[in-house]
Amino acid sequence: MSTTTTVDRPFRADLLTLDPPRLLGSRCSACGTTTFPPRGFCPGCRSGAELETVPLTTEGRICSFTVVRQAPPGVEVPYVLAQVDLPSDEVRLMATVVGVAPERVALDQPVALELHPVGTADDGTTLLGYRFRAHPEEVAA
Amino acid sequence: MTLAPAHVAGVGMIRFGKYPADVTLEGMAVRAARAALEDAGAGLDTVDGLYVGHVFGGPVAGQRIAAQLGLDGRPVSNHENYCASGATAVREAWVALAAGLHDVALVIGVEKMTDRVAGGVRPDPGDLDAAVGYVMAAGHAMSARRYMADHGATRDQIAAVAVKNHAHSVHNPYAQYQKPIDLAQVLDARPIAEPLGLLDCSPISDGAAAVLLCSPAGLRRLGITASTPRVLGVGLVSGSVQAGLGDPNAEDVSRRAGEQTWELSGVGPDDVDLVEMHDCFTIAEIVRMEGLGLVPRGEGAAWTAAGHTGLGGRLPVNPSGGLLSRGHPVGATGAAQVCELTWQLRGDAGGRQVEGARTGLAYCKGGTVNGTDGGSVTTVVMSR
Ligand SMILES: [Zn+2]
């Protein structure tokens, strides 16, 4: 009987790092535009300038959101899906939001990045994805 | 640059709805095609090529249809642009006619959904949005919430789109739903993605629609001497990658689709008498009309509630009932919109006729791509 040690890994290595837990974006050396997910071109200036892979801020706020009550078979509902703005990077992305009851979610609410298991690879490794968690003090308020 | 218009020699469709399993994709397409050929008084031998729009029909669905219809051996192509597939097939047929490749082109939009799609449509599994739990209804729900906050619009005003479009399709024998609904029914419907409920969402439907397009030489081949409605131009754009934290309802993709079609058709926004708009969700009709520039920014919800986009209003939108009430077999919708514009421009639309309609616009928006403001957008301009 053999034992195997497995280490968690991102569900997509191009999107996030685990230590520290950060989303990865690309930043344009010409105009400073940051994008998520990382891209091979800058949608801000399309100049062909070099893009640098950068870790993104973990602090966001809710641009808009919905409580999904019906989804295709196999998807558990309800869940909160949001467009999350990362103001310091000027990046908007879509993600689920946890840590707040659906009826308490609000526009402009602050949220923070968190990684969570989204599946298991063929070799038994836990795959980590990303979502956002509402700030506890905001929920209590 | 403008291309030669395509003449609409005939149109036909089957009633959209939920059909049993033995009503096949091929069978629905054949029925719609025969109706269009009959409407034109044309035989199968007149058709130079077949253009088929569908999403879920599988490989070579168009050729499977041709083999049942009797167009086997002819050039057949399949066109997938999600909900804009049928309109994309119209565009490719128009281009082939303008190029002189064909003189008579048959377009079929068709979809069999009720036996293969459950719980709503979603992006391709390879798209990042799918990995975070995106479904189409969620995107429009987020659009609605932001729209209400930014423009002071109310939930009731957005729900008014569904009430209006259901009222229109009472007069449409091809519509999946032919009964009026009231505001309370929309507001009280089962929530799908808050704030949107079941009646804010177009249904999962089966159906087919067909359009027979001709060059002037094609009209002569068919012996048609009367005036026919014409497709003046069909715009096609795709969503662009968004950067920054701008208005999520900017609908720049709709603005670009509109500008392209005004240039292609020589028609301006002020000339449009009616619009068949891709109202896959109530809010979508509002923000897309604004993106096109046909309704002032931020006023679309109020316009709807005030009746400006209803029959008899300032600019009637979706006299057919739209996707919400005619139904939305995704690949068929673009072709069904061209059927409706044709009936409207001929004055054949019965109780849903837009009086004096001379110029119409049909708009489809198909699919989503992570990080962009849309998948594909088509804009068909027709005149009588
Ligand atoms: Zn740049």
From TrEMBL, chain A:
Report the residue ranges that make up the ChsH2 rubredoxin-like zinc ribbon domain in this protein.
19-49
Matching InterPro entries, A to Z? ChsH2_C, ChsH2_Znr, NA-bd_OB-fold, Thioester_dehydratase-like
Domain of life (superkingdom) = Bacteria
Q: Which Pfam families match?
A: OB_ChsH2_C, zf-ChsH2
The record places domain ChsH2 C-terminal OB-fold at 54-114
Entry-linked Gene3D superfamilies: 6.10.30.10
State the protein's name: Zn-ribbon domain-containing OB-fold protein
Species, as recorded: Actinomycetospora termitidis
Its taxonomic path starts at:
Bacteria, Bacillati, Actinomycetota, Actinomycetes, Pseudonocardiales
TrEMBL record, chain B:
Q: Does the keyword Transferase apply?
A: yes
Q: Would I find Transport among this entry's keywords? A: yes
Top EC category:
transferase
Q: Which residues form a coiled coil?
A: none
Signal peptide span? none
Q: Which residues form the Rhodanese domain?
A: 82-111
Cross-referenced PROSITE patterns = RHODANESE_3 (PS50206), THIOLASE_2 (PS00737)
Against SUPFAM superfamilies, the record matches this protein to: Thiolase-like
Alphabetized, the UniProt keywords read: Lipid transport, Lipid-binding, Transferase, Transport
Q: Name one Pfam family in it.
A: Thiolase_C_1
Q: What EC number(s) would the UniProt record show?
A: 2.3.1.176
Q: Which InterPro entries match?
A: Rhodanese-like_dom, Thiolase, Thiolase-like, Thiolase_C_2, Thiolase_CS, Thiolase_N
**Organism's domain of life?**
Bacteria
PANTHER family, per database record: ACETYL-COA C-ACETYLTRANSFERASE (PTHR42870), NON-SPECIFIC LIPID-TRANSFER PROTEIN-LIKE 2 (PTHR42870:SF1)
This chain belongs to which protein, by name?
A: propanoyl-CoA C-acyltransferase
Q: Which organism is it from?
A: Actinomycetospora termitidis
